[in-house]
Amino acid sequence: MQNQDLIVLKRLAGWRAAGEKAVLVTVTRTWGSSPRPIGSIMAMSETGQVVGSVSGGCIEDDLIASFTRPDPATGQCAMQLEGLPKKLRYGITADEAHRFGLPCGGTLELMLEFNPQADLLQELITSLDAGNLMLRRLDLSSGQASLESTESVSVLKINDTELVNCFGPSYRMLLIGAGQLGEYIATMAIFNGFTVTVCDPRQEYAAGWTTTNVHHMTEWPDDAVRAFKPDRRTCVLALTHDPKLDDLALLEAIETEAFYIGAIGSRANSQARRKRMMEHFDQTPESLARLRGPIGVYIGSKTPAEIAVSVMAEVLAVKNGVELPRDMEVARAKAQQEQERQQA
């Protein structure tokens, strides 16, 4: 599965290139609880096709009805798919919040942009596919949009004259090791919008890989990491349990801006890895501070599928800037369990 924004933009670009009228809807403000965060987008064609989401579904239904279902008495739709950008607000009253499924009196403000330029949409898609971070500016007085590249992620900004939304390329995951655990993690990562690459120079493992929509590399992992060029939207996971494969890849990864770097293994193996790196590769506790291991959150996982759930949960928490409680760390939880058994 692609980055959700890319899915929306590609469908919208296709509609517009085919000459269909369409609207791009952006969440610009929220008050109280809201189903989707600021900056979320959806698109709707004149035939009522919808991609993306701004709520749990009720607001989408209302937009479809307003733009595509004529009033039997007048033969006209409540709103037309044309004109200058239009602001809508849902959930102002308790009745509306209940009607549209907004939780606890939440209020949602949307910006509707009619018939975006197909060529500019394609330019944005091409830039995102190339791995660029982009700003899209919408002039609210004219409805004209423009693009510019940026080096840092920013939140949506809106004032009386323009709306500026930041779009990023898909998050990337580089897996070192094409074993069974890697397949489970890759499947979950793809489902969560990551572009996944697996590296394994061992032919017998690479040949047995079955998960589709994954890029493959057969270089030695340290060379693969250098070629991959991890950035702030990249995570690197070492899964082979083989020091000559995992360690060199991790040493390269910690020199990059990857948001998550970790390796599978027991507490003893993780400690041994750090010791090797400090003794033989001039690393220090400070230089290894970003290296995670054992990876995952503690859920009592035993099978490869359960371990993959644990690992993916931690990756997503780090990606989303959530600091997990320390007692969810695998090493801490297992140490606590051992202490409790000894005291029993």
UniProtKB/TrEMBL annotation:
- Please report the stretch or stretches of sequence annotated as the XdhC- CoxI domain: 15-65
Q: InterPro entries from the xrefs?
A: MoCofactor_Util/Proc, XdhC_CoxI, XdhC_Rossmann_dom
Domain XdhC Rossmann stretches: 173-315
Q: What Gene3D superfamilies has UniProt attached to this entry?
A: NAD(P)-binding Rossmann-like Domain (3.40.50.720)
Which is an annotated Pfam family here?
Answer: XdhC_CoxI
Q: What is this protein called?
A: Cytochrome oxidase I
The species this protein was found in: Orrella marina
Provide the organism lineage as a comma list: Bacteria, Pseudomonadati, Pseudomonadota, Betaproteobacteria, Burkholderiales
